[in-house]
Amino acid sequence: MKKFISITGAILIAASTFSITALGASPNYYSNTEEFQLYYKGYIQVQGSYNDGGYNYISGYIRYSGGASGDTGRLYTQGTPTGPKDNAIYSRSHTYRDTLNPWAPQTKFNYGFSKIPVGSAWPLPSLAANNDNQTTTIIHEDYEIPASSR
């Protein structure tokens, strides 16, 4: 009986964790992990020096909405690469509280990256500035996916 309870407990714990991760050879990735249907743990990172398909990734963000914690707004990676030889990892993580209410709106997970073509001029202009003299084109990508499988 104890063995049955142990096995059942292990299956329930494994089933209560849901993860969405975009991993690969690139240091530019995000992850979203649901834990026990109570919390989500989000993470995003970029490395400016890495040539990822002809682009240098310069920032990223994660965002949660629809759960018990409300809307986080965009939570950006902390810091910006200083140049194409900057090997530092710039990241951001966040733990978001969900609700167990089955009629609550589904929690949404958004993420995005900003990137520039390899060989672009550095230093970079401000990401928020509207600079008419800007010589570097910054490309912004935004995505939204359900945060869980429910």
Entry summary:
9% of the residues lie in helices and 40% in strands. It has one helix spanning 2-15, and strands at residues 17-22, 29-35, 39-46, 55-65, 75-76, 90-97, 108-117, 139-146.
Q: How would you describe what is shown here?
A:
With 150 residues, the protein is mainly beta. The protein has one domain. The protein is 9% helix and 40% strand. It contains one helix and eight strands. The strands form two sheets. Strands 1-2-3-6 form a four-stranded antiparallel sheet. A four-stranded antiparallel sheet has the order 5-4-7-8, with no helix packed on it. The protein starts with a helix and ends with a strand.
Main features:
four-stranded antiparallel sheet, elongated, 40% strand, single chain, 150 residues, 1 helix
**Count of domain modules:** 1
Listing every helix as H and every strand as E from the N terminus to the C terminus, the arrangement reads HEEEEEEEE
Q: Can you tell me the overall shape? A: elongated
Structure classification: mainly beta
Largest sheet: 4 strands, antiparallel
Supply Rg. Answer: 19 Å
Beta-strand fraction estimate: 35-45%
Number of helices: 1
Mean pLDDT: 80
